[in-house]
Structures are given as structure tokens and as C-alpha cells.
Amino acid sequence: MLNQVSRIALASAIALAAHPAWALDADDFGSKLKAAVQFFGVSVDYASATAEGNTVTLSDFTIYIPGEDDVEVPGDIVFSGVSEASDGGYEVERASTADIEIDDLEEDVSVSLRNIAVTGITIPAALDFSNILPQALRLYETASMGPLSISKDGEEVFSVASISGVMDLGEDMSAIATSLEISGISGDLSSIPDEEATEVLAAFGLEQFNGWVGATTVWYPETGQAVLEDFVFTVDDLAALRFSATIGGYTRAFYQEMLKINLKMAELAQAGETIQEAEMAAFEEAMLEKLMEIQVEKLAIRYEDASLFMKILDFAAAEQGIDGATLASGLKFMVPMVLAEVPDAAFKASVTRAVNAFIDNPQSIEIVAEPDSPVGVAEFAAAEDDPFVLVDLLNVQVRANQ
Fold first, then answer.
1. How confident is the model at residue 304 (pLDDT cuts 50, 70, 90)?
2. Domain count, the chain
3. FRET pair for 280, CA 20 to 30 Å: which of 23, 57, 131, 324?
């Protein structure tokens, strides 16, 4: 009797474990994913969805972008570590797809991109505009790929070791931080068929180059302030270009309105209809109208020299049959002439001092806009007729070697 009960209990447990109610519903997962990605202004579809254990596989995945050609993802997209959330949505540990290998892009150019993955994915049960901010921002935590390799005639001409992006929402989403890193950038420009271009690249030391790109941002939804702390593009031993900015007006409400525009664009893409120019123009106008609410608090562009400026100077001087020092003196003489039409005498004098200081000792030169109070983007319209209006409006300054 006891053995019979045991067998019945075991059979019942197996039946319950195999019952669809206790297994992942691949089609439900797929449909909720399709809804969630509309936050990005695109729509997606797939041919089939299967589930095995805590893994969901979507096959023949296609991305539809408004006004652009459809993008077919090669191979399957595999979502691993999938679990159903209490609200009916899904949590995913990792999503990955097959490596991309394209051998016939054009003129014997091939592309290889490996290790494509997204982690920390949260798919909502349904889009809820009363809670849209966390839904949109929690779609993923990290995205990464690489190495990327581009070859021509079997020889690698450009490569990137890795590309990674991270989103950190913090504990209460009062400060949302993001970062981007593109490391191990390497290029070989020696095979460019243009002989004149090859000579220029050789003179500047750009036949072979290595570089790096990085960016960090912080957004404060409650105050509406967004800070691009640093966006830098560095070419080793040559130069670095940096951007930073602080803007206001990027509020929770602003973000939600932009999401609504994205969802409308996704709906059009999902319909499979050709988007007319008038429709795209309407979307662009709607986005531009929202951007008019943004306020500029600070902007900065900074160039840091490692050797590039003198290489350019020497090359240009050689073309004229003179040396670099002579050309540098000529440039200093030309600066006031170039600025002749600038109405602000004090600004003109400060720019001249900064440029001359950089020419004498090329370390860095920076253009900074730091107005006394935030300036709305709408006010920039005044610069259409007179660009120099921005000098006073934004309190523009030029600094060297600081």
C-alpha cells in the first residue's frame, strides 16, 4: 500500500512538473519582449519561439526601423536564466546571439563581430505609462560585444577589442548613470589606394593607429539635470578630443513624452507600411519641439595634443617650402585677421591670447560655454542671423594649456 502511494505521488509530481502552467511560455515571453523593445522606437518579430528549462530561443529575429531597411539577425537569439516575475513579466540573466560573419559586404570586404550579449534584462508584463520610467530604464543593465574585425582582401584593416555599455539605476533611481567604453581600437590605413592620401597619413603617423573611446553620463530625473561628464576619443601618441555638457529640462515628463514618440514610430514600423516623408517629418518636428524645452547650463570641447599639431604644422610648412617655426609665426599673425569681424573686442583679445599660447606650446585648447543662467535651446534661433550672439548668450570662453 505504501509503495503504491509513493508511486502515485511520484507520478503526480512528474505530471505537475511537466504541466505547461509550470513551464516557461515562449510565445508569451516573445510577445512581451516585442512590446518592450518599442521603447527604442523600433519593432521586432520572429518566426518561432521555443522554451527549454529556463532558456527561451527566438529564431529568425527581425528588427524593423522606421524609414530604414529591415535588419535580420543571423542565427537564433538565446535568452538564458529566464524567470517569470510576480507581475507577469520576465527577468533574464543574459541574451546572446550567434557571431556575425559577413564575407561579401562589398569589394572583398569582410566583417566579423563576436560575443554579442546583453545582461540584466527586465521585460514588463505590459507597458504602463504611470510607471514608464523604470520600465524603460530597466530593460537591460549591460550590453557588450567584441572583438570586431573588418578585413579587405583577407587583411585586417580595422578592429575593436571590445564595446561595452553599462546602466546603473542606483537604489532609488534618483541618479541614473551610464557608461560606454570602446577599447582596443586599431586601424591600418596604409592600404588606402589614394597615393596622395597615403603620403598625408604617413606624415601624420596615421598609417597604423590605436585608440580608445569612453563616455560617462549621469541623469537626475527629479531635477531634470543631465550631465555628460566626459566623452573622449583618444588616438594614442597623437591627440585626444573631449566633450562635456550639463543641460536642464530633461525631466521625467520630458523623457516620457520622448518615449511616446518612440512608441508611435514603433507602431508604424510594426505595421509594415512604407513611412512617408511627411510622417517622418512630423516625428522629427515633434522631437524638435520637445528639444526646445532643453536648457544649456554648460558645454565644453577640449583638444589635447600629444604630437599631432606639430606634425600638421611641419607637413603644411613643407608644402610651402618653409619650416614649422616660420609657419607657426605666420599663424599667430593671421589670428587677429581671422577674428576681424568679431564685434566683441574683449572676446577677440582673449581668443588671440589663447590660440597664440597654444601655438607656442601645444598642450590643450578648450572652448567653454558657461552662461550665468541656463539658456533655452529655443534662444539659439537668434544666432541664425548673427552667430556671434552666442558669444554673449552662452558666455563663451577659449582657454589654452589649462
1. very high
2. 1
3. 131
Look at residues 175, 174, 43, 155 and name the one whose alpha carbon lies nearest to residue 108: 155
φ/ψ of 374, rounded to 5, equals -55, 140
Which pLDDT value is given to residue 21? Answer: 40
Would 55 be classed as within a structural domain? Answer: no
334 lies in some domain? yes
| Residue 227: its H or E element | strand 225-235
- First-to-last alpha carbon distance for the chain, in angstroms, is 89
Q: Which residues contact 346 (CB under 8 A, 6 or more apart)?
A: none
Which residues, including other chains, have CB under 8 Å from residue 214's CB and lie 6 or more apart? 179, 180, 181, 182, 230, 231, 232
| Cβ–Cβ under 8 Å, residues 165 and 142 | yes
- The per-residue pLDDT for 388 is 84
Domain membership of residue 382 as a residue range: 308-400
Residue 135: other Cβ atoms inside 10 A: 21
Check if the beta carbon of residue 29 is closer than 8 Å to that of residue 51.
Answer: yes
Polymer length in residues for the chain:
402
Asked whether residue 261 is assigned to any structural domain, the reply reads: no
What sections of 272-344 are H helices per DSSP? 277-291, 308-320, 324-338
| 186 in a structural domain | no
What is the grid cell recorded at 253? 515628463
Cα 309 from Cα 303, distance rounded (Å): 10
CA 134, CA 255: separation in Å to the nearest integer? 11
